[in-house]
Amino acid sequence: MRLTQGTFSYLPDLTDEQIHAQVEYCLTQGWALSLEHTDDPHPRNTYWEMYGPPMFDLHDAAGVMGDLADARGTFPERYIRLNAFDATRGIESVRLSFIVNRPSREPGFGLERQEGPGRTIRYTIRAYASDRPEGERYP
Amino acid sequence: MNTAVTPVEGAQPVLGGSVDGSVDGAPPDLDAAIAASPVADLLATLDDELVGLVPVKTRIREIAALLLVERLRREVGLTAGPPSLHMSFTGNPGTGKTTVALRMAEILHHLGYVRKGHLVAVTRDDLVGQFIGHTAPKTKEVLKRAMGGVLFIDEAYFLHRPENERDYGQEAIEILLAVMEEQRDDLVVILAGYRDRMDQFFGTNPGMRSRIAHHIDFPDYAPDELGQIARLMLGRMQYRLSDDAAVALAEYIERRRGQPEFANARSIRNALDRARLRQANRIVTRRDGPPLTRDDLMTIEAADVRASRVFSEPAGDAS
Q1: Alpha-carbon distance B97 to A86, whole Å?
Q2: CB contact under 8 A, B3 and A55
Q3: Could you tell me the pTM of the whole model?
Q4: Which of A113, B80, B202, B240 has its CA 20 to 30 Å from the CA of residue A106?
Q5: pLDDT, tens digit (0-9, with 9 covering 90-100), for B289-304
Q6: For residues B153 and B190, is the Cβ–Cβ distance under 8 A?
Q7: Distance from CA of B227 to the nearest CA of A (A)
Q8: Interface residues on A facing B, Cβ-Cβ cutoff 8 A
Q9: Which three-class secondary structure state does DSSP give residue A137?
Q10: Residue B231: exposed, middle, or buried by beta-carbon count in 10 A (0-12, 13-18, 19+)?
Q11: Which candidate, A109, A94, A91, places its Cα nearest to that of A47?
């Protein structure tokens, strides 16, 4: 199951050229870019690990693309996303975020039912990948 | 590392900037290319705003010509890799190394060699870390910031400290070298420093010397060039010299040149700043006489220049 989230969740994965263009746009807006990675695909997992410090004061996308290539080389089988942070007073949050790398095989999620008091049923989803410990989830 | 986008023109390395001509069999039009490129204007302003520095201007002219020819060659389908434009500026203090570096970013941007045309000026402290593992991220961050523009490393010889073999400077140099080689279409590195110390630096880092295509030496200014610079600086600050003061300044330059720690244009700028102080003091302390005019506020008199201690000290051998 192909995991989607972030700004371009409704689109197929962006090519490097398209990512480059997005980064250029972010830089013209004065946003700081950063890379994050994870191997826990649960949608409520919002705190991914940083790949290097956020990149401030950049003028050209080449630096970000270089870091992205490094990140893909280090974690080819993890989710990597690119975030653009807007530091403008009053906004101070991520303005744009999308997945730029994903594992070659994504097992997807299982639906779990829990029976509660009476005949209530609680539902939750569970990523098959997170059955295994961190670091061994995407062989 | 080659994820940086290569525009759609196939495998040809692209210098950035726009190529206005189409890629067909048409003969290259040199006149049109020269007329379309901003080179002539750029060189003219350079001549106006920078006094002297003939070898520097010659080299800029050559680089401009090369980039123009490269564009023409591309139009007729001839390929060559992007030329290496890393430079080293050597020269005595105050010969305009930093000033030219600032201009160089602008020039290379107009010529379409660098994409963004900003200048990131750094020194050793920005590149070299304090402890193990600190240097690489620091250097890489600076390099990322400089992508698409010019990285100017002032006093680059400090990067290498031969007296300390565990110095982290070497690590920074190695990262620099790798990027200078692999991503030369992403950024231009300019090293600057005093001549003898840069020679030493290149002596201990032969890899660095060979990766820098342009070693440009900044000559010292002649006395009349210094006078011209002084007039230019004053003009920019909306001051002017009285006739006597012009004579006094010429004399000042002659004497100052012979004294130790003469720093070319920088000494002149300092001298002018002190002359402005004295002029201001003179205006403030005068009590009688005709009312103050706009002209009085602009004019630096001979007395303002001659009060300098340069005139009271014995002149050196050169004067």
Answers
A1: 36
A2: no
A3: 0.79
A4: A113
A5: 788 888 888 888 888 8
A6: yes
A7: 39
A8: 16-17, 20-21, 52-53, 55, 57-69
A9: coil
A10: middle
A11: A94
